[in-house]
Amino acid sequence: MISIRTDLAVEAKEIYSAQSNGKTSGVDVEEYSEGDIKITNVKIVSDVGEKMMGKPKGTYITIDIPEFVHYDGEAMDRVSVVIGKVLKPLIKLEDSMTALVVGLGNWNVTPDAIGPKVVSKIMVTRHLKQLVPDSIDEGIRPVCAISPGVLGITGMETGEIIRGVVEKIKPNLVICIDALASRKMDRVNRTIQIGTSGISPGAGIGNRRMQINEQTLGVPVIAIGVPTVVDAATLANDTIDLVLDEMIRTANSGGEFYNMLKSIDKEEKQKMITEILNPYVGNLVVTPKEIDMVINSLSKIIASGLNIALQPALNLEDINKFLN
What is this structure's pTM? Predict the structure, then answer.
């Protein structure tokens, strides 16, 4: 039912709700806040919800980042603590169990580099637990990490590489980080989604690859994503919608022009925009011009949150000392 491209469950829920007159059968939603940080918990609990949302059953937690957080180190740490708090109940590991962190994406393309950049800031300890166990506190959990690249660089499906690593080291949990696509510009680089149903690398830009989930790997998979791009056709469509809404607001109610504007089918309009743009721009996606700085700060926020959740015996200050 969901035809508009989005990787965010919270957006899929909004579309589903709009198309079904506010009724969202098979989907439970809970909203709450941690200070100025809004958190939305979307649970797809039935086959009906799965079909209507266009996403697998599971829990999808969306964290909305406050404005200007990328310029404020204290605010970044605050978001990281919230991410760690949200992740801890999902990471069901004993201290001796191993977690594998996977940074999906192409490190040569900035909007797609969030995964590899997060991995570069992860507190990796598996080798230390094996080689110098006496020098590591008992409460430190073994964590390893990998950035497998993309099919165009390696010639191998990302899922195949991860499955090979999982079969070799046998982790108890896999955590994947990837770039996503949003349908709203105001959510780009401002939203973090945490899901329990796995991930399909490249899905945000239409490149569907092997699924990375518990069914394909044999271990639980947590996916963390940030929408770094928005589809150009969707952006154009939303802009025209704003123009139409403003024209409807100012037009004489009941007049011929007003009735014509009200009769425009928004779904048909979106299809027309996509068809018109496709010969000229193809599957164009758009990202903000300050993407380099934003990806650097987002990768630090997510990595710190992951480190907090994976190493509950340490606080953020201890983790930063270890990394430095």
Answer: 0.85
The fold adopted by the segment(s) 9-229+289-323 is Rossmann fold (3.40.50)
Quickly list DSSP for 227-277: EEEEEHHHHHHHHHHHHHHHHHHHSPTTSHHHHHHHT--HHHHHHHHHHHH
* Tokens matching residue 124: 């990796």
Helix or strand (DSSP H, E) at 12: helix 9-19
Enumerate the β-bridge partners of residue 175. Answer: 101, 222
Contact 302, 118 (CB under 8 A): yes
Q: What distance in Å separates the CA atoms of residue 219 and residue 241, rounded to the nearest whole number?
A: 44
Are 296 and 117 spatial neighbours (Cβ–Cβ below 8 Å)? Answer: yes
Percent of the chain with pLDDT over 90: 46
Domain coordinates of the chain in residue numbers? 9-229+289-323, 234-281
pLDDT tens-digit readout, 192-218 = 999 999 887 655 445 556 789 999 999
Length of the chain: 324
